[in-house]
Specification:
This protein is an all-alpha fold. The protein has one domain. Helices cover 76% and strands 0% of the residues. The N and C termini lie far apart (28 Å).
Length: 97
C-alpha cells in the first residue's frame, strides 16, 4: 500500500496536468489513454495492481503517440518519476542528478 500511495502522490498531479493539457490541445485519444491510466493508479490497492498502471504509463511511447513540446516535457517527467518509483519498489538505490 505504501508504494501505491507514493505513486498517487507523485504521479497523480502530473497526470491531472497532462490530461488537462491534452484536452486543451484537442488530443482526445491521448487524453482518454492517460485518464484510463489515472483511474488504474487511483484504484491500485497494492503493488500488483500498481504495476498495471506503471506498465501502461511506460507503453505510451510504444503506442506511437506524438506530443507537442510542452506535452512531451510532461510525459518525460512522468516517466522519470515512474522509473524512480519502480526502483523504490525493487529496493534499488536511486541515482539523483
Amino acid at each position: 500500500m505504501r508504494h501505491a500511495t507514493a505513486a498517487r502522490n507523485e504521479l497523480g498531479p502530473l497526470l491531472d496536468h497532462l490530461i488537462r493539457h491534452l484536452g486543451a490541445e484537442g488530443s482526445a485519444t491521448q487524453q482518454a489513454h492517460f485518464k484510463r491510466i489515472r483511474g488504474l493508479l487511483y484504484g491500485a490497492a497494492d503493488d500488483l495492481e500498481l504495476t498495471r498502471s506503471i506498465f501502461e504509463l511506460t507503453s505510451c511511447t510504444a503506442m506511437g503517440f506524438r506530443f507537442s513540446h510542452a506535452t512531451d516535457v510532461l510525459v518525460r517527467r512522468i516517466l522519470s518519476k515512474t522509473s524512480d518509483l519502480v526502483s523504490d519498489m525493487q529496493g534499488l538505490p536511486q541515482i539523483r542528478h
